[in-house]
Design a protein that fits this description.
The protein is an alpha+beta fold and 508 residues long. Helix content is 38%, strand content 19%. It has three domains: 12-317, no CATH class; 328-439, no CATH class; 447-504, Orthogonal Bundle (Arc Repressor Mutant, subunit A), CATH 1.10.10. The structure holds adenosine-5'-diphosphate (ADP), magnesium ion and zinc ion (ZN).
Length: 508
């Protein structure tokens, strides 16, 4: 591991007072095609190592690639959804370099002829002046293939240093990737970290809506590299950029950009200069460390791939794909906001939490929108955060959340019990009904046991009982509390209060 972990940083407020950030985001998305980009091998995640390989994706001599049509179709659909032009004619290129997990010694990619170019994606960010839309220019979206995966065994860190040996799994080699590269993003000022996060969030939403990928950042099907540079004022030419690699959660994108801004600013304020280099993001410590510098990099000796025919998507095909695009996410957001009748800010909270899909599905499963938002943004967001996973990856479905909420609205559960039911579902104890039954969680709605508990509480606190009889209705809280405790929270507090007052013959 790198030792230069103590680089100076400038406080963020000082950074934005003295510098203007420019961003560039490169997102790799692994397509969800059934087979690989240039061969027929399956792409299932998590298969036993090296069971999904063939001569082509292993780069054996004499093997020939064939383009996956669904891969090209997905690339075009992504390009169209990003408002890009679609090339009339483009080629694959060989990007030559050696890496042990890349058996062909070149990556089949695209170079100066991307399939999609010159588009944009609008993203909304909450600013001091309300929600503001930033238009992110898209430079290009091109097709390429993934590499295999190397794991280093025996060391403490999982990194190559200190490892006893390394294992290579080629199952991932040849899985189709689309790389989406933004134009330099200017004009974000102090909101640069939030804009970066909002862009990847919006892009992920768009890709999910297209159904082209499962867009799981933690499994690596969506990966982001963040380029950051600083300049003194917006009229200066761009500063030297660094490229922070593989930032693998939405939150880390924001953190990595913010950190890099504070680090670069400290260097520049000290009269130093920024080295153009790749940097590694460290999730645990929240810093980036130096990777390889661009000077010693990269002459990939790109040349057109001779084994693949050029791609020339007919205009009819492109138009057909355009008309079959799903509802644009921005349009969908506006529609749902209107249907649910919620404010911009409430909608933004849903989006920031990545909760739009789950809330929509929970409402579709019968829950009220307010209740659906309450569970996903409250209890479930807390658990997801604790576990470091996305809401959608929690082991509870929108239908189950709607099920819990149905039990609340019919009076079987109060909120406190509902949280326990959710806990049970998350713990794998089954459907909400089953958890209620097995944990014995239903609200006690039968007045008999409630009256018994009330009498017991009154007997235990005779002075309080007298106060209430004497008209001090505020004192009822103590008795209600005792009854709730005695019934382990399973009583309806409102009902207990009503029964108590009736018992003592007083009214509110
Ligand atoms: P590389 O091959 O180094 O990854 P790319 O062109 O693929 O280069 O991506 C570079 C990214 O950085 C693009 O999004 C580009 O818009 C952005 N970029 C270029 N120059 C700067 C700069 N000075 N500061 C910030 N971002 C930049
Ligand atoms: Mg790049
Ligand atoms: Zn193969």
């Amino acid at each position: 591991m790198s030792t230069d972990t103590t680089e100076k940083v400038l406080p963020y407020d000082d950074v934005v007072a003295s510098f203007d950030p420019v961003l560039g985001l490169e997102v790799h998305v692994e397509l969800g095609t059934a087979t690989k980009m240039f061969c027929g091998c399956p792409t299932t995640f998590g298969a036993a190592p090296n069971t999904q390989v063939c001569p082509t994706c292993l780069g054996l001599p004499g093997s020939l690639p064939v383009v996956n049509k669904v891969g090209v179709e997905s690339a075009i659909r992504i390009g169209l959804a990003l408002n890009c032009s679609i090339a009339e004619w483009c080629r694959f290129a060989r990007k030559n370099y050696f890496y042990p997990d890349m058996p062909k010694n070149f990556q089949t990619s695209q170079y100066d002829e991307p399939i999609a170019y010159d588009g944009y994606l609008d993203v909304d960010v909450e600013t001091d002046e309300g929600v503001k839309t930033f238009r992110i220019g898209i430079e290009r979206a091109h097709m390429e293939e993934d590499t295999g995966k190397t794991t280093h065994q025996g060391g403490a860190t999982g990194r190559i240093h200190g490892a006893d040996y390394s294992l290579v799994d080629y199952n991932r080699a040849g899985i189709p990737l689309i790389e989406i590269v933004t134009k330099p993003i200017e004009g974000t000022g102090k909101y640069a970290p939030e804009v970066a996060r909002a862009y990847v969030t919006a892009l992920r939403e768009l890709l999910r809506g297209l159904g082209v990928s499962d867009v799981k950042m933690e499994q690596g099907s969506l990966r982001c590299d963040a380029n950051v540079s600083l300049r003194r004022t917006p009229s200066d030419t761009f500063g030297t950029r660094t490229e922070t690699k593989n930032v693998n959660s939405l939150r880390s994108i924001e953190r990595a950009v913010r950190y890099e801004m504070t680090r670069q600013a400290a260097v520049l304020e000290d009269g130093g200069s920024i080295t153009q280099e790749t940097r590694h993001w460290h999730e645990d410590t929240g810093i980036t460390t130096s990777g390889r510098s661009k000077e010693e990099a990269e002459d990939y000796r790109y040349f057109p791939e001779p084994d693949l025919v050029p791609i020339a998507p007919s205009r009819e095909w492109v138009e057909e794909l355009r008309t079959s695009l799903p509802e644009n996410p921005a349009v969908r957001r506006a529609r749902l906001q209107q249907v649910w009748g919620i404010s911009d800010l409430d909608m933004q909270t849903v989006l920031n939490a990545g909760a739009l899909d789950v809330v929509e599905d929970t409402v579709a499963a019968g829950a009220d929108q307010a209740a659906a938002r309450k569970w996903w943004l409250g209890e479930l967001a807390r658990v997801a955060n604790e576990r470091g996973v996305e809401l959608a990856d929690l082991p509870i479905t929108p239908a189950q959340v709607a099920g819990v909420e149905a039990l609340v609205s019919e009076g079987t559960l109060n909120d406190k019990l509902a949280r326990q039911v959710i806990e049970g579902v998350l713990a794998g104890e089954g459907e909400p009904d089953a958890v209620v039954a097995s944990r014995g969680l239903a609200v006690v709605s039968d007045d008999g046991p409630l009256l018994a508990a009330i009498d017991e509480a009154l007997a235990a606190q005779p002075d309080v009982a007298d106060k209430i009889r004497g008209g001090k209705v505020q004192a009822a809280g103590a008795i209600v509390g005792a009854v709730m405790k005695a019934t382990r929270g399973q009583a309806d507090a409102g009902r207990v209060r009503a029964l108590l007052l009736e018992r003592l013959g007083v009214s509110e």
